[in-house]
């Protein structure tokens, strides 16, 4: 019977090579099936001090280990536990590395047993887990873990996790195990014996798998056939709505703590009326209105009653998931049949089974990341209903592999003689039968922009988080290119010129000559791209020394104007043409391979040929898109676009970004959206400025003649009792004394944090100021008092920073652009929101500055018509971060005296709910906060 020695160590740091040592060891020895046969645990004297971070993480301090044995004194007890056993650990390289270093030091032979890493094992068997940290896995799988970061407790939980994963492995289909066996040699862990055994059980045990089917040679979860949607008889809307909101069998019978909200009911009315009368509507619904439920009720009612499809577009994927998994199930029982709702995404999100099967059959050149990615996808396919990449946590290089196997590659499958009836096709089928199709603004804008449609046909659309529509549409009607992305494409183009792909085909010799030339052309294209990028980088850097603007994430920006710097423009254009000549040459070389493969297809039934043809076809499309976009970008005869370049100030000397956006997105949206669809509902918590929608109408092209319904629904929260707004009157003038301002700001952050016990979100409008403030705070704040996290400085995504902030009792989070909205930190985790400046866009932002110029020429006041309303909407978004429920309470602290002293300050204040405002010295305000909280 197999034995497994599960080990966990606590150490003074991450690197035994740098002198870090073990401070605690825990070992659990189990037999197959999970029976524990032995346990061992001991503190270890490390012969050095334990650092503060390790002390706080483990709870082990120097006094605890003072009387503990040296490792050499317990080695004779530890070593035999590993004999004739698999060694198992969560991140095995770490534990085994430390263990073998200590054993060698004591004169023992290092351990060379077979190993299993439970991080790798969990990644393969639990591919959709949002995290693979031991504590979080234990919590998700409800495994008791009473003492995290203590060796024996961690080893016990690792043992439980290992047994759980072994059971999961045993349940996999035969075909999945076959492919895992092909990949096994590239993985860290020694799984072969178990893959073999479970495969034999499946083959000879006559165990029928009823949950999966074989599609394109791969075991895939059975799809539930899509039933056609039917229209249903529904009561008259008004009486039905009253039943839903006020009746005994309505929402109150389903939801605990349900409260009737008049604003929610009104919003349902407005949306329904717009649908019924074929009108557009703008509805601002304050925080806590319950706007998702309000508009979903109307959308589902209309879809079912009239057998119509309603599109719902959101800005964030988190809101899409929330609608599908939380909000729609809440209201479904209000209807006579289930609501058919789907999330619909672009082709690149869905896996193509034919392309994945091709990659599985050609695994001989895989590196570790590719092998791990394939193993994860194989297991995931036995469980997913959608085939959507967002469900699975791929390793860092797995994204590159995904491009090869996504449905983007299968654009012309039918012409090539094979069908790829997999996930994208199923997603289309489901969308055609759906009442509600939930998508994102990006795909929605792509659909309006393209001649051939991306989304299924619709007349009614609800655009939630509609304050983002202008920015997203501008992006999709413009150009976005960058050096790294172009390099990635070139590397991918290179793959179709690998000679190994064409092994076994009887191809003429000049075809292999063409392959070598293709590889050479790619190298030349990379060199031309690098020279172009370096040239642009150097010129933008020169401009930055003249004090040019910075983007909100700290990149240097340079606006291109037709009559400025003609020599730079001409040289850059000429260099881009040299690069594009290589792209043209690549297209011709790919087309030659295509012709040869099509000739082969007539005489050769190899299933790989259509796959290679589909990929070539896709690569040629990408080449043509790059060609047309760059030609367009360097055509300076057009006045209707804003073009600019960005560089990473500290980045590589060719890290460049090229952008263009239309100056007037409003007329495009008017023409392609509002004039074409029966009813477009725009909603968000922040659409009005000064109680008017004129700004949003102008920005999005909703003409007065559109006969639009409008409504502002106030929040039900009691802001007077829940919020205090405070403005210090003694900050230095930021224009005259920028350094003194940052010092005053840092002191205010620290003083307020002492009163609020951290739990502070500080919002900046400038990345540069955020960075300087962070560095100053780090100088005088002890990390044992407050943890400080800063966007763009501390590592991690926005969500990761938010989670880290919430994980510490006393923390301060500094954020720029994306933290002004969409970040939910409810309850006691957030007590103070500080805004450093009113969120005006810097006047030198490219799109802003060109629009300002245009408006001045037209005799308009760009400040009052564009800059001010845009800043007010951002301000309302920022303010909305603080109060996320009726029980939240906190302080909004705004370090910008313009709010009180400038003429336009009143417009900001009048756009907020009524809250008490204090304008005093910083010291007095801090006393007020202390008394109030």
Automatic annotation (TrEMBL):
E.C. numbers: 3.1.-.-
Against CDD domains, the record matches this protein to:
DEDDh
GO MF annotations for this entry?
3'-5' exonuclease activity; 5'-3' DNA helicase activity; ATP binding; ATP hydrolysis activity; DNA binding; DNA-directed DNA polymerase activity
Q: Where is this motif: DEAH box?
A: 464-467
Q: Does the keyword Nucleotide-binding apply?
A: yes
Q: Where is the Helicase ATP-binding domain?
A: 250-535
Q: Which GO terms describe its biological process?
A: DNA replication
User: Reaction catalysed by this chain?
Assistant: ATP + H2O = ADP + phosphate + H(+)
Residues the entry annotates as binding ATP: 285-292
Q: Looking at the record's lineage, which domain of life comes first?
A: Bacteria
Q: Which UniProt keywords apply?
A: ATP-binding, Exonuclease, Hydrolase, Nuclease, Nucleotide-binding
- Enzyme's top EC category: hydrolase
Q: Which cofactor does it need?
A: [4Fe-4S] cluster
* Gene3D superfamilies in UniProt: P-loop containing nucleotide triphosphate hydrolases, Ribonuclease H-like superfamily/Ribonuclease H
PROSITE patterns of this UniProt entry? HELICASE_ATP_BIND_2
Recorded family membership? Belongs to the helicase family. DinG subfamily. Type 2 sub-subfamily.
Q: What does this protein do?
A: 3'-5' exonuclease.
What is the protein's name according to its record?
3'-5' exonuclease DinG
Q: What organism, scientifically named, is this protein from?
A: Halobacillus karajensis
